[in-house]
Design brief:
There is one protein chain. Helices cover 12% and strands 38% of the residues. By secondary structure, it is mainly beta. The longest helix is centred in the last third of the chain and has 34 residues, at 666-699. The radius of gyration is 46 Å and the shape is rod-shaped. Bound molecules: 2-acetamido-2-deoxy-beta-D-glucopyranose (12 copies). Residues 219-322, 542-656 form the CDCP1 third and sixth CUB domain. Residues 345-432 form the CDCP1 fourth CUB domain. Keywords: Disulfide bond, Membrane, Signal, Transmembrane, Transmembrane helix.
């Protein structure tokens, strides 16, 4: 204890004495002693004198010298001959660190000798480390970090760091740096030379850096910059403004806080004349799927990058005759994201059990063109390009993205019923939650998976606003649609796409489905109130789907079979319950004359059944023509059952329904317009037709078979034979229709738009797709079979022909009302017979 106190006292005394000695400036004596083996050399020499001055000398033992060199193991005492030696002399202290022949002294680097024993001259401390080629040397700078300056620039406080490396025998300048920057580490290999210049007036007495050994970096150097907040850094290629060493690689790494964005811009560059390879820069950018991102120097460089990234400059093999120079000076700008708020959005899924939300990049083809990162951040900390929020918790998210339209979100919610006793008749709203709608990202899909116990329950979807089926003829123009598809893995069944603003009141489906709300336009937000479906669990039924359609008087309702483009799945039945208001007549029209289905097994057929009368017409969809436009005064069913079709010969049907007021008396109209002649023709047509019809009836066998719900892939045999007979008569049927069509334009003129000819049904008229076609003679457009159970007029009859007598075949299968309505048109368990 006593010894230590004593030492301190002596030191203090020494300082005091020194202070006294220094009073006559220039006259003070300095002693520099360099320990043997320290590897240090001190050189005091004349600096760059700005203005000619009175000469000054170093005085050693009364000898005046212009320069003094002290080697390790030596000791010198000297004074200066002038009062202000700092204006004349500079001192260089060079320390060689040899890592080749022994262990390297890594760690904090000291200023040796301490600045306190040195004359107050401009000092340059130089450390020269030589190491094996395979050893990476890393200079670590404590805060403040370094800022690179270009040629001709100087540091405000005069403290500069000049760093160079070595490539075999040649020195490569890495750069000159001031304090107060972003450069935190510089890694090199083979050797490094660091010169710290401290002006004589600067009080700094520490080196401010340490050296560590690292494994090989396999390139010229790596410079790391760390940004703590917003800021910028200007950096240069090695040797700048001279040329970058031939065929070398240099990397800059950037550490950027997650909530900020970085942009790179090239301030100056030059390219050399490459003989082989190409000069380029390569980036590793978080979130990029195409890393490394390769750019030419002349390209626009990436911007708005979130997260840490690195940038490498790769030289080429230069032309020996005229190498040119490769050089680069660039700036990295780190700032807050410009075009998005720092808003935090809360998505509360804590009360959800089956719902998850994914925010992900929209699939866009950019090729290899770089686009800046676009990130979603959870709790403002972890940012990623693709974020999935899981049910059961509350999530706080924010966005780091220059353009949020590059993202979209997809959500899925599973509503599953395990206990059919419990779920029966229960309802759930299918609505996109507000937490999701508030996010500044477009909702792409919101999918509900609706799962029910097999063969126990079915589902009914009731929309808040009646739905329209998307068809080519009447596409949906809303900003969103519901896509309804089977969710039974083995089943490829897509019911269709439906949007609000139509006539479909409900959709019943047999089993597990997915309902996907898909948006098509950003204005979904404005239309969001139109969304809304309610799903209820209802008793099981066997059709794949039942559509309840209530047409309104204003527009045509287009409907088409599920799986439109690929054809109705084999052995599938679908029904449409089409309501006709009491004061209206519905006209049902099929888009084509025949289906193209060819059955491999089973039969494809369609039943049109008047609901009130239960009168039904059965059509074989395989060989028969589809019904001509027909009128229905009461609600009716269109039930379609598919066979197992031959590949490429699928069943697809498009039909439409229009309503016209019942009060319009067609006969009166016809008479009024075309007069008795037309009526005569018309009546003639009817007569011919009815005669034919009668004839036909006599030709064929007994009543057409009843559709039996339980054995349905097998059409009643009689239908087939009857069908053949009828085919022969088709020409007559058409003749009559053509006659009618002759007057079609007249009917239209007088009777109003509802009488416009229908393009698809009547080839001779290529008019616009209008309303209902002119009423064809009812009997002629009649389907082959018709079954009436009451004295109701036949469904095809136009109002004026209500009382017309005619005969029709009808089945005698007893009481239709006993039929089990839950039975499908098809029973797939039933063995099916191949079609002939
Ligand atoms: C010492 O350094 C300062 C600033 O770095 C410079 O202006 C001055 O000329 C230097 N002095 C000599 C003698 O080189
Ligand atoms: C360091 O940066 C701060 C803020 O940018 C500035 O106020 C200060 O003058 C700078 N110091 C030096 C030595 O460059
Ligand atoms: C550097 O100077 C500060 C005072 O300015 C002093 O506290 C510190 O001990 C000195 N460090 C060295 C290594 O001399
Ligand atoms: C650093 O040097 C020490 C001994 O000098 C050696 O054991 C160690 O492996 C080196 N580390 C690296 C990364 O080269
Ligand atoms: C370097 O490129 C600039 C344009 O970026 C050009 O003006 C200049 O002449 C080039 N210098 C050399 C030495 O090639
Ligand atoms: C650049 O970044 C990528 C990805 O983070 C990393 O794999 C690679 O090692 C980095 N390269 C350098 C030289 O830092
Ligand atoms: C921000 O958005 C506006 C308009 O959308 C655009 O003009 C501007 O360039 C954007 N700014 C940035 C930094 O992306
Ligand atoms: C996002 O993540 C989800 C879930 O991991 C994955 O299904 C989806 O394909 C990913 N999207 C992209 C664009 O990588
Ligand atoms: C529907 O999903 C439920 C629950 O996953 C499953 O038990 C049932 O078998 C599925 N129904 C069909 C027809 O696959
Ligand atoms: C969509 O079509 C309906 C008629 O089909 C029309 O009334 C409505 O204005 C259209 N809406 C838009 C946004 O085009
Ligand atoms: C058919 O639709 C009408 C009108 O929506 C409805 O009243 C009737 O119950 C439906 N019939 C069946 C069997 O679903
Ligand atoms: C048509 O389908 C509905 C619903 O599946 C059913 O109630 C009706 O009985 C079927 N009609 C005929 C004639 O099969």
């Amino acid at each position: 204890m006593a010894g230590l106190n004593c030492g301190v006292t002596v030191a203090l005394l020494g300082v005091l004495l020194l202070g006294v000695e220094r009073l006559p400036r220039g006259a003070e004596a300095f002693e520099i002693a360099l320990p043997r083996g320290s590897g240090i050399t001190v050189l005091i020499k004349l600096g760059t004198l700005p203005v000619p001055m009175k000469p000054c000398y170093i005085v050693i033992s009364k000898r005046q010298v212009p320069m003094l060199s002290i080697k390790s193991g030596e000791r010198q005492v000297f004074t200066f001959s002038c009062q202000n030696p700092e204006n004349h002399f500079v001192i260089e202290i060079e320390k060689k660190i040899d890592c080749m022949s022994g262990p390297c002294p890594f760690g904090e680097v000291q200023l040796q000798p301490a600045t306190s024993v040195l004359p107050t001259l401009n000092r340059t401390f130089i450390w020269e480390v030589t190491a094996h080629k395979s050893i990476g040397l890393e200079l670590q700078f404590s805060v403040p970090r370094l800022r690179q300056i270009g040629p001709g620039e100087s540091c405000p406080d005069g403290v500069t760091h000049s760093i160079s490396g070595r490539l075999d025998a040649t020195v490569v300048r890495i750069g000159t740096f001031c304090g107060n920057g972003t450069v935190s580490r510089i890694k090199m290999q083979e050797g490094v030379k660091m010169a710290l210049h401290l002006p004589w007036f600067h009080p700094r007495n520490i080196s401010g850096f340490s050296i560590a050994n690292r494994s090989s970096i396999k390139r010229l150097c790596i410079i790391e910059s760390v940004f703590e907040g917003e800021g910028s850094a200007t950096l240069m290629s090695a040797n700048y403004p001279e040329g970058f060493p031939e065929d070398e690689l240099m990397t800059w790494q950037f550490v950027v806080p997650p909530h900020l964005r970085a942009s790179v811009s090239f301030l100056n560059y030059n390219l050399s004349n490459c003989e082989r390879k190409e000069e380029r820069v390569e980036y590793y950018i978080p979130g990029s799927t195409t890393n490394p991102e390769v750019f030419r120097l002349e390209d626009k460089q990436p911007g708005n990058m979130a997260g840490n990234f690195n940038l490498s400059l790769q030289g080429c093999d230069q032309d020996a005759q005229s190498p040119g120079i490769l050089r680069l000076r660039f700036q990295v700008l780190v700032q807050h994201p410009q075009n998005e708020s720092n808003k935090v959005y809360v998505v509360d899924l804590s009360n959800e059990r089956g719902m998850s939300l994914t925010i992900e990049p929209r699939p866009v083809k950019h090729g290899r063109r770089f686009v800046p990162g676009c990130f979603v951040c959870l709790e403002s900390r972890t940012c990623s390009t693709n974020l999935t929020l899981t049910p059961g918790s509350k999530h706080r998210i924010s966005f780091l993205c220059d353009d949020l339209t590059r993202l979209w979100m997809n959500a899925e919610n599973t509503i599953s019923c395990r206990d059919h006793w419990y779920c029966h008749r229960k309802s759930y709203p299918l609505q996109v939650p507000g937490d999701i709608l508030q996010l500044p990202v477009q909702l792409h899909d919101f999918s509900w998976k609706l799962l029910v116990p097999k063969d126990r329950l079915s589902l009914v979807l009731v929309p808040a606003q009646k739905l329209q089926q998307h068809t080519h003829e009447r596409p949906c123009n809303t900003s969103f649609s519901y896509l309804v598809a089977s969710a039974v893995p083995s089943q490829d069944l897509y019911f269709g796409s439906f949007c609000p603003g139509g006539s479909i009141e409900q959709i019943q489906v047999k089993q597990n489905i997915s309902v996907t709300l898909r948006t098509f336009a950003p204005n979904f937000r404005q239309e969001v109130s139109r969304q809304g479906l309610t799903v209820s669990f209802i008793p099981y039924f066997k059709e794949e789907g039942i559509f309840t359609v209530t047409p309104d008087t204003k527009s045509k309702v287009y409907l088409r079979t599920p799986n439109w483009d690929r054809g109705l799945p084999s052995l599938t039945s679908v029904s449409w319950n089409i309501s006709v208001p009491p004061d209206q007549v519905a006209c049902l029209t099929f888009s084509k004359e025949r289906t193209s289905v060819v059955c491999q097994t089973g039969r494809a057929f369609m039943i049109i059944q008047e609901q009130r009368t239960r009168a039904e017409e059965i059509f074989s969809l395989e060989e028969e023509v589809l019904p001509k436009p027909s009128f229905h005064r009461h609600s009716f069913w269109v039930n379609i059952s598919n066979c197992s079709p031959a590949s490429g010969k699928q069943l697809d049907l498009l039909f439409w329904v229009t309503l016209t007021p019942k009060t319009v008396d067609l006969t009166v109209t016809v008479i009024a317009v075309v007069g008795g002649g037309a009526f005569l023709l018309f009546a003639l047509g009817l007569i011919i037709c009815c005669v034919r019809k009668k004839k036909k009836k006599t030709n064929k066998g007994p009543a057409v078979g009843i559709y039996n719900g339980n054995i349905n892939t097998q059409m009643p045999r009689q239908l087939k034979t009857y069908q053949k007979g009828r085919k022969d008569d088709d020409s007559h049927v058409y003749a009559v229709i053509d006659d009618t069509m002759v007057y079609g334009h007249l009917l239209q003129d007088s009777g109003g738009s509802f009488l416009q000819p229908e393009v698809d049904a009547y080839r001779p008229f290529q008019g616009a797709m209008g309303d209902c076609p002119p009423s064809p003679p009812p009997v002629c457009s009649r389907a082959p079979t018709l079954k009436l159970t009451t004295d109701e007029p036949p469904p095809c009859l136009a109002p004026e022909s209500e009382s017309e007598p005619y005969t029709f075949s009808h089945p005698s299968n007893g009481d239709v009302s006993n039929r089990n309505t839950d039975v499908p048109l098809l029973d797939t368990q039933e063995p099916v017979e191949p079609a002939e």
